[in-house]
Amino acid sequence: MNKVIAVLLAGLLLTGCARTEPDAAGAGDAGPERVEAWMNVESYKSRQAMNRQRSSQWLRQPGNEGKTLEEAEAALGLAKPDAKGAIEAALSIVEANPLDDLGFLALRFAFYELRSLESSELEHYQDVVFRHLEAHYVNDLRLDVMLLGLVRMGGEPGVKLVDQVVANSEHRQLRARGAFWSAMERLMEVDDLNTSPEERARVRAEVTRMAQLVADEYSDVEVFRGEPGGVAIQPVLYALDNVTVGAMLPEATAERVGGEQESLSQYRGNVLLLDFWATWCAPCIASL
């Protein structure tokens, strides 16, 4: 069944792709090969999902609380799917035609699976992925769905690519959201005590520049969950000005579940752990 679905999906994508250029390499020559490659990707994703489901069930069993996903996989004897093979299959689709919808889906898949590779294999495939992203997607609105991931999981290459989008993209929406995610996601690096003071100062300057850019030039552009940039970026600007390592936390008052009012000053002189979470954040809820 999964094989049939993969074939149908790839066929629909190949016949329905509208974002191709007249001279796009491999646009008409590599159809069957691209279908086969996408089937390999779908097969990898299916095995990966099945492993996750079985591991999750094992972790919920009595006596397995607190154990890791790796321990679950070892106990169940689950073999890891071949991430390298799936990435190579995806990149073969991209090399044939990086511009149509199937090419974009394959490139997006390859990017997110880079984290599954061994460090010795990462650099080569990362270079290929970012070469295509930089060459073809700085001015493509489809990149919008990857901006957060590029900053959060793309390391220095991801941050640099988003910087390029903010500086050069012809789409105002991409520039606005790139600047927003760069500022929002990198805020945690501003006071990273594992880095040098010089590095922290550099990151602070970059985050401040991006945040101010959102506030000054993209205050009217929707950047996150319906909020315009001018509103969504305010917590970042506030944190940059008021919340730093070693500084006194500003007073804040909140309502407890039972309705009582509580303020930070009540805990003065005690160790207090604050856990910031949101109702829409599934990992946040799971950690409570």
Features:
single chain; 13 helices; 2 domains; 288 residues; mainly alpha; two-stranded antiparallel ribbon; 4 strands; two-stranded antiparallel sheet; disordered N terminus
Structure write-up:
- With 288 residues, the chain is mostly helical.
- The protein folds into 2 domains: 1-136, no CATH class; 140-250.
- Helix content is 60%, strand content 4%.
- It contains 13 helices and 4 strands.
- The protein has helices at 2-16, 31-59, 69-76, 83-96, 101-113, 119-136, 147-153, 155-168, 172-186, 197-217, 229-232, 234-242, 282-287, and strands at residues 222-224, 227-228, 253-255, 261-263.
- The strands form 2 sheets. Strands 1-2 form a two-stranded antiparallel sheet.
- Helix 7 (147-153) runs antiparallel to helix 8.
- The longest helix has 29 residues, at 31-59.
- It is globular, with a radius of gyration of 23 Å.
Question: What layout of secondary structure does this protein have?
Answer:
Layout: H1 2-16, H2 31-59, H3 69-76, H4 83-96, H5 101-113, H6 119-136, H7 147-153, H8 155-168, H9 172-186, H10 197-217, E1 222-224, E2 227-228, H11 229-232, H12 234-242, E3 253-255, E4 261-263, H13 282-287
Antiparallel strand pairs: 1-2, 3-4
Helix pairs in contact: 1-2, 2-3, 2-4, 4-5, 4-6, 7-8, 7-9, 8-9, 9-10, 10-12
- Structural class of the helices, strands and pairings? mainly alpha
Unreliable parts:
1-8, 12-16, 18-29
The percent of residues in helical segments reads 55-70%
Order of helices and strands: HHHHHHHHHHEEHHEEH
> What's the tally of helices?
13
How would you characterize the largest beta sheet? 2 strands, antiparallel
Q: What is the total domain count?
A: 2
Q: What Rg is obtained from the alpha carbons, in whole angstroms? A: 23 Å
On the 0 to 100 scale, the average pLDDT is 88
Adjacency order of strands in the biggest sheet:
1-2
Strand content: under 5%
